[in-house]
Amino acid sequence: MGKWQQIGVVLIIFGVVTLGGSAFIYNHQMSQDGDLVWRDGNLYELHANPSVLALMTLGMIIGGICTLLGILSYFTPEEKRAQKIRPGSYYNTLQQSILQIDQRSEQLPVNFCPGCGRAVQPGATFCEGCGRRLT
Fold it and tell me: Does residue 39 come out as left (phi exceeding 0), alpha (psi in the -120 to 50 range) or beta?
């Protein structure tokens, strides 16, 4: 399991728990709204706490977003560790061009010494200036 899939699982679990818990508490608050309670010889009407309702609504929103992000990150493909050169790509074409240039330069006669840059006769084996082997 890749890094993004692990993050996705954690986000899904966190999102589902947050969403479910917030929805349960929200439902409990709303179910008691308007109920009558007999306490100490008096009849009281229960009201839902607006602060709790707002907090649970926020919890449900955050839980839903985390769940969606978790699903998206779980199904995100893993990054390719090593980029391979595809046939026909720019780098593959460039690499082939360099190989062709190298092959052509090996076939051409040496007119200049690669060591000192002095002109040499075609067919010479050594440079007259620095003594470097030319073949």
Answer: beta
pTM, entire model: 0.52
User: What tokens appear for 71 in the block?
Assistant: 């699903």
SS (H, E, C) 10-70: HHHHHHHHHHHHHHHHHHHHHHHCCCEEEECCEEEECCCCHHHHHHHHHHHHHHHHHHHHH
As given in the structure block, the two tokens for residue 115 are: 């060591």
Helix, strand, or coil (residue 86) = coil
Contacts of 68 (CB under 8 A, 6+ apart): 15
DSSP H/E element including 72: helix 50-74
Alpha-carbon distance of 95 to 91, in angstroms, equals 6
Tokens at residue 81, please? 């560790």
Asked whether the beta carbons of 59 and 19 are under 8 A apart, the reply is yes
Splitting the chain (135 residues) into consecutive groups of 10 residues, what average pLDDT does each group show?
A: 85 95 91 82 84 92 95 76 55 69 58 80 82 80
